[in-house]
Amino acid sequence: MDPRTQQQLATADRFRDLARALASGTGAGLVTPPPLDWALVVAFYAAVQYVGAYLWERQRVQFRNHQTRERALSTVPALRGAQQSYLRLRRLSENTRYTYRFRPRPAEVRDALDNDLDVVRRVVLTALGQQP
User: Fold this and answer.
1) CA dihedral over 66, 86, 111, 45, signed as positive or negative
2) Residue-wise pLDDT tens for the chain (132 aa)?
3) pTM here?
4) Residue 49: left (phi > 0), alpha (psi -120 to 50), or beta?
5) What are the extents of the domains in the chain?
6) What angle do helix axes 83-98 and 66-75 make, rounded to 10 degrees?
7) Separation in Å, CA 130 to CA 16, 43, 84, 117
8) What is the second-level CATH architecture of the domain 3-127?
């Protein structure tokens, strides 16, 4: 596997761990209540890194905007299984940052992390021939 792909996967895993820490409040020195909104933002960018790792490894492309990455999710057969989860993470991330008074519920954040982000991760790793 290309070193750049490995780095993107490592970054994605680190972002995933950070999102979980933000959602649970277990990170040292974090504010109370846990910053659930930022857990969603970090989770989305973990998904960006996972998809980016696949696209780099298989196509040697790096997309610098969300629209082209999303187009790849709909046109690359190996990634289609992650499309819905990826788009949900993006919507939640954008709502958190741009929608007045949007406050994610703990259950919604857990679902995004435990289901949507894990789907993106599993689809990408499987497509890369790695163990999820």
Assistant:
1) negative
2) 999 999 999 999 999 999 998 888 665 456 667 788 899 999 999 999 999 999 999 999 888 888 888 999 999 999 999 999 999 999 999 999 999 888 898 899 999 999 999 999 999 999 999 988
3) 0.91
4) alpha
5) 3-127
6) 160
7) 17, 21, 21, 17
8) Up-down Bundle (1.20)
The two structure tokens encoding residue 47: 């998904």
CA distance 118 to 112: 8
How confident is the model at residue 132, as a pLDDT?
82
Q: Comparing C-alpha atoms, which of 40, 41, 22 is closest to residue 32?
A: 22
Q: How open is the CA angle 68-82-118, to the nearest 5 degrees? A: 125
Token pair belonging to 130: 């790695």
The pair of three-digit structure tokens given for residue 8, joined into one six-digit string: 């993107």
